[in-house]
Write a structure and sequence with these properties.
Blueprint: H1 3-7, H2 15-34, H3 36-39, H4 43-68, H5 70-73, H6 79-88, H7 93-97, H8 111-124, H9 128-139, H10 141-147, H11 149-152, H12 155-171, H13 179-197, H14 209-212
Helix pairs in contact: 2-13, 4-6, 4-8, 8-13, 9-10
């Protein structure tokens, strides 16, 4: 019997709980390597990190839409929020579209793997409020007031409710019998994000003409 089953008196824990337990090591490794407080200590560091998040979501969100449909994908999209932040920080639309994009490779081949990846991206919204507060303190209101939409996410009022609804979606997804594949998809995503977001020399995003003047 697994540790999770023992903890619930013999019955299997909800899929969200199994995902948390099955990915905790890689989640902590991503947090350690990302060192977001240091990365966001400067405007340039923050801009570069946002550009990397754009490259991931630009590829990932259409995949979610194809796998689960607009009703699931549309309310949980993040790309437009990142683009709003990048424009506020001085990038034009042409420069944004020219940013490097994440290579999904074999990580998102089926619904269970994509569901695991969605667990990672939705879980990241829980800490977004804390990160947004840090950005406001370290970079100031001039940047945070219009350039922090991605980390503010669903907002203080709705973040917890959106996470609860996602946990319900997980448990009703029909993927209970393939939970190991879901967990493996989440683990792959944590590891891939660690490599993508913490690349030693990520390309510096080009700014629009307005930002250069």
């Amino acid at each position: 019997m697994t540790r999770t089953a023992l903890a619930t008196g013999g019955s299997e824990a909800p899929l969200a709980e199994r995902l948390r337990e099955g990915t905790q090591d890689l989640h902590e490794e991503l947090e350690r390597c990302l060192d977001w407080r240091q990365r966001m200590a400067t405007r340039e560091g923050y801009l570069t990190l946002l550009a990397r998040w754009w490259g991931f979501h630009r590829v990932f969100e259409p995949i979610v839409g194809q796998a689960f449909g607009r009703d699931v994908a549309w309310p949980r999209r993040k790309l437009h929020l990142i683009e709003r932040d990048l424009v506020h920080l001085g990038m034009n639309r042409e420069a944004i579209e020219a940013l490097p994009r994440f290579a999904a490779g074999t990580g998102f081949e089926d619904r269970p793997a994509i569901l695991g990846a969605l667990y990672v991206t939705e879980g990241s919204t829980l800490g977004g409020q804390v990160i947004a507060h840090h950005i406001r303190r370290s970079l100031g209101d001039a940047i945070a007031s219009g350039g922090c939409a991605y980390y503010e996410g669903y907002g203080k009022r709705d973040t917890a409710a959106m996470w609860t609804s996602f946990r319900t979606f997980l448990d009703r997804s029909g993927e209970e019998g393939r939970s190991e594949s879901v967990i493996e998809g989440a683990r792959w995503t944590f590891d891939a994000l660690r490599l993508w977001l913490t690349a030693s020399n990520p390309p510096r995003p080009a700014l629009g003409e307005a930002a250069r003047r």
